[in-house]
Amino acid sequence: xxxxxxxxxxxxGALAALTRVSFAVAPGQVYSVIGPNGAGKSTLxxxxxxxxxxxxxxxxxxxxxxxxxxPERLNRRGLAKTFQITNVFxxxxxxxxxxxAAQSRSPESGRLASLWRRAEVTHLTQPLLEAFGLAxxxxxxxxxLSHGEQRYLEICLALATAPxxxxxxxxxxxxxxxxxxEATALIRAIALERGLTLxxxxxxxxxxxxxxxxxxxxxxxxxxxxxxxxQIRNDPAVIDAYLGGADD
Amino acid sequence: MDYLVxxxxxxxxxxxxxxxALGLLALGLTVIFGxxxxxxxxxxxxxxxxxxxxxxxxxxxxSFWVALLIAPLLVGVVAAVTEMATLRxxxxxxxxxGLILTFGLAxxxxxxxxxxxxxxxxxxxxxxxxxxxxxxxxxxxxRLFLLAASSILLLALWLFFTRTRAGIxxxxxxxxxxxxxxLGVNVxxxxxxxxxxxGALAALAGLLLAxxxTVYPQMGVEMILLAFIVVILGGMGSMGGSVIxxxxxxxxxxxxxxxxxxxxxxxxxxGIMIVVLVVRPRGFLGREGVLE
Amino acid sequence: MxxxxxxxxxxxxxxxxxxxxxxxxxxxxxxAFDALLFGAIAMSxxxxxxxxxxxxxxxxxxxxxxxxxxxxxxxxxxxxVWACAGFAIVVVGLYALVVSYFATARRxxxxxxxxxxxxxxxYTFFRYTQTFGGSDxxxxxxxxxxxxxxALDTPLxxxxxxxxxxxxxxxxxxxxxxxHFGRVLVAIRENEDRARFLGYNVQRYKMGACLISAILTxxxxxxxxxxxxxxxxxxMLWTESGEFIISVMIGGLGTxxxxxxxxxxxTLLRDKVSSFVDWYFIVIGLVLIVIVLFMPRGLLGxxxxxxxxxxRANG
Lengths: 248, 292, 315
What we know:
Number of strands of chain B: 2
Oligomer: heterotrimer
Distance between the termini of chain B: 48 Å
Shape of chain C: globular
Helix content of chain C: over 70%
Strand content of chain C: under 5%
Number of domains of chain C: 1
Strand order of the largest sheet of chain B: 1-2
Number of helices of chain B: 10
Radius of gyration of chain C: 19 Å
Order of helices and strands of chain B: HHHHEEHHHHHH
Structural class of chain C: mainly alpha
């Protein structure tokens, strides 16, 4: 198992954001987490990515217990995350964005030599830029990109750290239907090509149903259903959660 | 027993009063930081201006009580104008600029005060003189008044922040400034009012403490440094933490002064801050994780 | 050297030739010394402020500590420039290690507050400790010596000393800024969270930036007593820190060269304005406010180096 979440609970004051959530993601799988707003999906991501420490439960990544490790350590072990709100480096160029991401894996990184050496990472950045159609925009400042392009840059940054598991937090948020289709196909293709495992939060059902191998449904911090997209689509508990009572 | 009564007890009471004043400053800093996202380096100067405004008003009206009413209002107006003219344009920029700007403001206010009123120490005579026998010692009446006044002030503030709609909104917004957008309030007006109110409170503290300490242009500098230590100790962004830490520091400072000279006291307080930071980096009531 | 442009080489050549200008009296030479020293310190502060996005309100402490380190040695008869420089680096380095460890533990504002508090404590300590001369500081220091028998006693020699220091500091800053490390600093400035999620231990990088900046500044401070023959607590006042900041702001954040010019400009200005000592601080405050509000790119309009365009320009 690439990722095992075991009975993770997290409270914020009086709010129980997550209650004993468990699931497992096999290597190479595309696993989606869905649920109405406020269901705890982002909190779950933040726990897995090391931003929050769970109150109870454990997180295992690639066989090792990583509960409570900070984000930078998790990233070094091969876990990368994209953010729900685009989170790139605004005032530097697209190419430099990806460069600084890629160079975190270069041999100089973290050593004294990095004070004067420059990392040679063009062989890593170029393919990524091309795959996401950003090669032509390499000199542009990140903040000048369109929304869709920025989402792609977001993913590039995560991929540049050569992860085994990629957490995608609403990757198609704010995209047009056309962009969404494109992005979904692209993500799927790259994941296959690199043997990545994907963990997805998504609101767009077409994306979820289209590329997921398995889906888990959260509601008020609890996992209420899990299965293949087909099984989830027809699960009465899930339908109930989305249609009845669940407010925005 | 005599020592306890004659020396410790008065110092304890001094410490509580000083802690209350510190608390007002630190609270203002925390609220401004939480709401406006700016650490107001000029806050100590607002405290100082309160004392000088008091001197000016007393010069005209010969009444400390009138000054107590008018001076904070005057400083509040100055603060409001300052916020509108200089801080408002910065809210969308990197926080670095706000820091540098308030630093510049502090310089202007401080030296401006020195130009207008001169660098000499001034005195404001306590409006209430004499002393009262209390718990086996005699305690100056003005300080008793201060104890009462600061208690009432803090109680009023507590009521404001817990019982009034405006106060509850501000408290929540300090935790999460984004929420204001969803409430349909005039955010800019809230910011200006908050800044002005914090300034007025700092000024009030300055004027109230003025008869005890002397008045001079640098008087805000020591206070602001202590206020920063208080804010850090209390946990950045925690209003309750600021008040608690203010009293801790105020009393500590007061008690230590019995045994050490002022410089050693300052270094001791600094040492306490370091120890707390090592043992509990988030401060008394700060939130878990990295500062937001 | 790839990182140092020919333009910089020309400037340094011109600066080296400065003493040959007719009319260059001892006074002006020492003024030039002060200007270049200030410029170098502003440049090292820019590494922290402009590139890493951290405002240090206590930089004067690094400066003053370096001065006291040198002064202590000179007072005791150790006059070698190398010994003084080395000692200043060690002393300031240790102090910076402690400060940066605490100051980088949390987000940006924390850094500003803690550097300020630490600096105030250091100032208080030196101001009231008689071993270091109290408020008078350490006075009447002898000249430093380059080699046994070669004393840095004339304004000319002192000028060249500071020029060498500036050149060395400049090269170091340029190399660091263009390096792997330097890119990460910019990334941290732009988006600290993102940098963390890319696997960077952000605190370590911030500490590194602070250390480099502090040591360069401390070295400058270490050179100061070789010109002034004294070291006083006033060197560590927060107003001094403010002057460094204003120099960086005048020149333009994140340009390295801008702050050097800013520091020079400021020193020369201060020299002219010193007769208006009363209004001096008000002017500084107003200038800071005006720059922040209207000219964030710097009074002198140096283009902010966004990203790493120097790298690209050099290959």
